[in-house]
Amino acid sequence: MANLTLDHSILAAALEGLELQKSRIDEQISQVRTALGKGGSSTKAAAASSEAAPAKASGGAQRELSAAARSRIAAAQKKRWAEYRKQKAAAAHG
Questions:
Q1: Ranges of each domain in the chain
Q2: Shortest CA distance to 30 belongs to which of 51, 46, 19, 54?
């Protein structure tokens, strides 16, 4: 049962980190489109911000992850990928 809780908390932290990255990437895309002079991108930016709005409304103000939290998430992801590669290599060798 503790393993399920650990997996859930890791996934929740990973999701939060990915959403933060997505919002940063969306902002950078918007800036590049603006620099290129494409005025039609404002509707896409508005759609992206409206998609992000419900997530913020349900959880209050969006928090930034600490460096320690990002390190833990990165370490957990590296561990998962290492296990995946290990299993994939074992299956390939028979």
A1: 2-92
A2: 46
